[in-house]
Specification:
The chain is an alpha/beta fold. The chain has one domain (10-243): Alpha-Beta Barrel (TIM Barrel), CATH 3.20.20.70. It contains 9 helices and 10 strands. The strands form 3 sheets. The protein has a 5-stranded parallel beta sheet.
Amino acid sequence: MSDTSMKDSPLILGDVTLSSRLLVGTGKYADNEEMVAALEASGTDCVTVAVRRVDLGAGEGPNLLGAIDRERYCVLPNTAGCFDAESAVRTARLARDVLETNLVKLEVLGDTRTLLPDPLGTLKAAEQLVKDGFNVLVYTSDDPRLAVHLQEVGVTSVMPAGSPIGSGQGILNPNALAILMELVEVPVIIDAGVGTASDVAIAMELGAAGVLLNSGIALAREPVRMARAMGAACRAGRDAFLAGRIEKKLYANASSPLEGTIAGAAAGELVAGV
């Protein structure tokens, strides 16, 4: 089989085209050097930056944005830390002015304890940002109907949580995610709760267009090694989804067909040496 037949289509988000389907955050690393090494090891093309937690006016230098190679990575600003639609919209507009990008990851959180998305505030902010010309990647719950409403207002991507932010619990509700992915046509990127490489593979095998994670890499014992594992799992899970798994069956199904075997062999009647 030729290499061409094994190629995958890129992930297209608005006017941005990504070869890697793994998006990686930039928070919680021990230092910028570790972050840079982890990003490289992951193979990602797109990194997220919390707008409210960086000095957007600092320019080049020892700050977070200065450490990111803008020629190598697409920078995805996010509105992390916003708890109402108005502050999220203001934050997104600030990021566009400074970073000169229409791409934004929208987060409108409900409270500081659970960090779950506020559905009403999220929908309100998404609608306004789409009207403002943003390509909105929106962090949301795994509620399929809310995902449909977000698609209806024109978001670029729906990003349901696999489990609560930073919890490392993995994919808690695959059924809801599978239904959600059936109901929307925009790319679905699993965002939040990923703890290890197998979580990424599961998300991709479900049919997700991509996975976004941060803590699973940054807080691992060896972040750079974990970043490499996450990248490999993303590719493996995507390949498995495209290949199509075998049907699950209740009983055994022999790998070697029993038809055409030596008489008696199928019933276990052959004896070694006879």
